[in-house]
Design a protein that fits this description.
The complex is a heterodimer of chains A (237) and B (745). With 237 residues, chain A is α/β, with parallel strands linked by helices. Helices cover 20% and strands 24% of the residues of chain A. In chain A, strand 3, helix 2 and strand 4 form a beta-alpha-beta unit. In chain B, a hairpin with a 6-residue loop joins strand 1 and strand 2. The two termini of chain B are 50 Å apart. Classes of the chains: A alpha/beta (237), B alpha+beta (745).
Amino acid sequence: MRVAILQFPGSNCDDDTMHVVTRVLGEDGRLVWHREAQLPTGTDAVIVPGGFSYGDYLRSGAIAAHAAIMDAVRVFAGAGGPVLGICNGFQILCEAGLLPGALTRNASLRFECRQVHVRVEGRPTPFTAAIPAGRVLRMPIAHGDGRYINDDATGLGARGQVVFRYCDPAGGVRDEANPNGSQLGIAGVSNEAGNVVALMPHPERASEALLGEDGGRQIFESLRLSLTPGRGKGRAA
Amino acid sequence: MSAAREPEVTREVGRTQGMTDAEYDQMLGILGRTPTFTELGLFMSMWSEHCSYKSSRIFLKDLPTTGACVVHGPGENAGVVDIGDGQVAVFKMESHNHPSFVEPYQGAATGVGGILRDVFTMGARPIASLNALRFGQPSHPRTPYLVSGVVSGIGGYGNSIGVPTVGGDIAFDECYDGNILVNAFTLGIAEHTGIFLGRAAGVGNGLLYFGSKTGRDGIHGASLLASAEFDASSEEKRPTVQVGDPFTEKLLLEACLELMKVPGLLVGIQDMGAAGLTSSAVEMAARAGNGVELDLDLVPRREPGMSAYEIMLSESQERMLAVVEAGREGEALALLEKWDLDAAFIGKVTNTERVVIKADGKVVADVPAAPLAEGLKYDRPRKRPAYLDEVNAVEPLSFAQPAPGDLGATLLKILSSPNVASKEWVYRQYDHMVRVGTVVGPGSDAAIVRVLRPDGSAKGLGLVVDCNSRFCYLDPYEGTRLAVAECARNLAVSGARALALTDCLNFASPERPETMWQFVESLRGLSDACRSLGVPVVSGNVSFYNETEGRGIHPTPMIGMVGTIADPAGAVTQHFKGEGDVVALLGLQTAELGGSEYLKVMHGKVAGRAPRLDIDLEKRVTETCLVLADKGLLRSAHDLSDGGLAVAAAECAMSGDEPVGAELTLPAGDLPPVAALFGEAPSRVLISFSPANRAAVEQVAADAGAPMAILGVTGGRRLVLGPDVDLPVAVLSDAWRTGFRKVVE
C-alpha cells in the first residue's frame, strides 16, 4: 500500500511514522510537503503525523489545517479514502473540519508523556478492521492539548464514532485511567463515514517489541487488511 | 548605527563591562590604539570567563582526550566519537545556570536549544537529550517556582522540536538556594564522512547568516550573566536572558541537515551561541587562520536602530553562521526559502587574519582574530579550603542511630526525600519516546536508545548523567572519581560499555582561591578516573561564578557518559521482573556514611569523608555486569547509590509496572545496621537472575574476580531486608512516588 505521510513545518513524528510504514510494515511510505497541491499518484491512505505544526503557537493544528496539501486531503477523504491523524494530526483534522470536536489543554495543565490503555470500540473503520471490539491496546501519549471535547459526545458514541476510549488495563473506562480529562474518556474518533480516524495516543511508538509495546501495530495492520481487495469491510471477529 | 554615535572608550568604561585594568592594557597592546566601543564589546565578550575559559584552560589541557574512538575531542562545538558502521555520535553538555535562575522557563528552554544547535551544527541529527538539575532546599520559597519553570522550559523546547529527553539527574541542597544548576546534554548521530566544523576556510567564500532575526535580547548573556556571581540585583538582569523559539529551531535543524547533504555547498558552520555573531565569526576565522569581513547593514534585524555593538553581542536564539562555497550562494538561499528562514550573505572570508566589521558604510571594528579567539590564560591562586578539616573529622556513626524497630521508618523517610523519590512528575512532562528509539527511558539506571545501522539493523547507545556533589564537597578529587565511576556503572548495569564522556564543571567564583583548589582537585580526579577506566573526555563546559552574595555551590562536576550496546534488545533494567528470581549483591559492603543521604535526611548534615573508590574493584564489578548482560543472564540490575542497599532494593521492588517483593538478608559482616542498609560505598550492584542460571552467574563473577553475595529471592508483596525491615511494597511505593510531588504541588 502507498501511504502519504504529511510534513508540516514543525511535524516531528513524520520520520517515526515513515519508519513504521516502511521498515516495520515493509510498505510504500511517501513524505508529502505541506506546500504540495496533490497527494502522490496512487495514494491508498493518508497519515497526518504528530508534532508541533507551525509551533502550535495559535491553537494546536489551527494553521496546518489551512495548508495547501489539506485541500487534497479533503478531496481524498471525501472520496472515502482512509485518513489517520495521530496526536497533532488529530488536532489538525479537527481544525480542518474533517473530524468533529476539539482538543483543548490537558486537565492537568501539563504536558503528559506516558503509557496509557485504550479500548477499541465503535463502528468498523479501516484502522480498526483487524481489531476485535473491546480489545485493550497499550500505547504512549505525549501531548499538552489532548482533552477532547464535543457538544454531542454522547451522540458521537451512539453513532459509533468513538473509536478509542482511555481505560484501565482490564478495559474499564474510569476517570483514573483518563490522562487528560477528555469527555467520556474519548481518545479517538472517526467521521460519520468512518474513513477518517484520529487518536491522541501514538500507535507508531507502540509498533515494535524492542520499544516495549507492539499493540499499536494492529492499527497499521488493519489498514493493510482493509486495503486488501475483498477484505476488511467488516470488523474481525 | 555609526561609530560616531558610540560612547568613547576609556579604562573606566572597560571596568563597567567587567574588564580588569590588566586586560584593558593587554587589549590596547594588541590594537596599538584605543578601541572603538564595538571593539571593546568584542574583547570583553570573547575574553569573558564563559567564552575564553581563562581560569580553567591551563588545567583542562591535562585531561585525557584521546582514544581509539575519538574523532574530534574538545575544541569543536561538540565531541565526536566513532560508534562503528561508518557512524559517529556527537555529544556535549552545557550549563545554563544563571539565566535559568533569573527566568526559569526561558533560561532552561534556551539551554536546551543551545546544546541542540551545538550538535546539529556539526552535521549530526540529535536523537536524545538528558539534563542534570540542581535546586535549593525543597522548603526554600523559590524552589517550587524554579522546579516548575525549569521542567516546563526543558519540556517546552525539547518536546516541540521532537528530540526525546530520555533521562536526567535531579537533586536538592541548600547550597543551590541562590544559584540553581541547569545542565543540558544532547547526543546526535552523523555519518563519519558528514561532520562539519566551524572553520571559515576558503578566501572569498561567503558568510551566510540564517535563522531568526537579530534582536536586542541576550546582550551580555555570556559576559555579564554567566561570568559574574549573583547578588541582589540579579533580578534586574532578566533582560539579558534570551527567549527561545523551538519551532524556528526545528526549521533550522532540518534546513541545516538539508544544506549539509548538498555535496560541497557548506565549507564550515557554527551556531551563534554565547556572544552571538561575535563568537561564531571570530572563532571560525581563527580556527581557519583566516579573516572575515562583515557588513552589519545586511544582518536581518528584528528592530531598527540597533547599534553595531548590539548586533555583534545579541544572543538572539536560533541563528547560524555558515561559510558557503563561492558561486553557490543562490543554491543555499533557495533551500532556506523552503524552510521559511531568514537568510542573508553578510560578508566574506578574507586572508587578513582580521575581523573587520562595517556598519553604515564605515568600519566600526578591525581587530586581529587570533588573540580575540585565543583569549586569556590565568593561573589563579589556589588554597585548600579550611572547612574540609572540620567536615572530614565528623564521624557519621557518632550521631544517634535509629533503634532496630525504627529502621523501616527511616527507609520510608529516605525514600520520600526529593533527592531519592521518583522523578516521574518531571519526566512525564518530557516527551521521552519521540523518534521511536527509546528502548529504556527515564527511571532506570541509564537510558538505552536504538541507533539504526545503515543496513537498517539496530544497535544501541547508553546515556547517563550523574554527580554526587556532597561527595565533591567533602573531597573534590574523590567525589569526581566517584561521579565518573558511577556513570560507567550505570551504563554497565544496563548492558552498555562506557565509551566516552562530556563534562559540565559547575563551580563557584574562580577568583576565590578555595574554589580554584576544588576545581583543580576535581580535574585531577576526572583525569585519574578517565585514565583508569579508559574513557576519554571529548567535550565539556566550565561554569564558574555559581554563587550568590559570597555563598558558593558545592563543587558539581557533572558527568555525561555515553556507552555502546551491540544489541539493544539485551538492555537490562533495574526493577525485579517476577517471582522466584535469585537476588545477589555484587561488590563489597563497607561503612561509608560520609556525605550520605541518610546523614542528610536524619541528621541534616553533609559531613564525614567521601566514600573511597577502589578502581580495581569497580572494574571487576562493572565487567561482571557487562558479561552477565551480554550472556543474557540478568533479569534486573541496579546500581547502589543514594540511600544505599535499602533504597536500591526498594527501587527494584517498586519501579516496575507491577510491584515485586523480595525476602533478603543483609550480607554477612559486622557493620552497624544503618551502615549496612544506608551506607553509600561505591562499586556495588544489586542483580537478580533465574535460579536456573545461578551457577553460570557465580562463575562469571568469579572469573572477573567480583565479590558476590546471595541475598535471597524475589516474590510476594513485601520487602524484607534483614532482621529489622519488613514493609509492604505498596507502602514503600507510596512514600517514593509522592515524595517529589510534595515539593512542587
